[in-house]
Specification:
The chain is built from 8 helices and 6 strands. The chain is α/β, with parallel strands linked by helices. Strands 3-2-1-4-5-6 form a 6-stranded parallel sheet, sandwiched between helices. The longest helix is centred in the middle third of the chain and has 14 residues, at about 90-105. The protein is globular, with a radius of gyration of 16 Å. The protein starts with a strand and ends with a helix.
Length: about 180
């Protein structure tokens, strides 16, 4: 079985763009540089949580070419398992699933959540040493996958492009992941 493990925000959906709109609407003048590192967002953590539990989560746009490439991978026999660190609010999770289904109908085989800002180590553990593919934008979670022997891709963003780890392939989009998967 071929399985792609993926984060959602910053990999499949454009969380940062939506959060910037949310900030502009409710908190003009505020911004964050790196939504994946606590030191960068600690001053707006409560605002991030409020956003993640709001209706705004139901309207995120697809990131780059995810809407084109993920369905192709699904058609080629890949299962897609997603994990997001958005927290456990049941209504926000329902909106997230609706949002994913709207942009990626039938693509995701499962979507799991971990607590807001939490590590995905426990979730990744069940895939340790497998032939899965792991796609993430948060370098610490990407490194966890790599440490577990999972082929790992880091979706480049303005906040992680400087991060380097020889075990992790940095990519700009899903087309590059598709290329790497199919050249093996």
């Amino acid at each position: 079985m071929k399985i792609i493990l993926t984060d959602i925000d910053g990999v499949c959906l454009n969380w940062s763009k939506q959060f910037d709109k949310y900030l502009e609407y409710y908190h003009p003048g505020l911004s964050i540089k790196d939504p994946t590192e606590y030191d960068a967002y600690k001053d707006v953590e409560s605002i991030m949580k409020a956003h993640n539990h709001s209706a705004w989560m139901g309207y995120l746009e697809p990131l780059r070419d995810a809407k084109d490439i993920l369905p192709t991978l699904k058609q080629e026999g890949w299962e897609v398992h997603a994990c997001t660190a958005m927290g456990f609010d049941p209504h926000a999770i329902a909106l997230r699933k609706t949002n994913l289904d709207a942009h990626f109908p039938g693509v995701f085989d499962r979507m799991d959540t971990v607590g807001f800002g939490e590590s995905k180590e426990k979730w990744l553990e069940k895939y340790r040493g497998t032939d899965c593919i792991w796609v993430e934008d948060k370098i610490t979670n990407a490194m966890l996958g790599a440490q577990m022997g999972i082929k790992t891709f880091l979706m480049k963003q303005s906040y992680n492009g400087q991060c380097d780890d020889k075990r992790i392939v940095k990519v700009d989009n899903w087309q590059q992941i598709y290329y790497y998967i199919n050249k093996q």
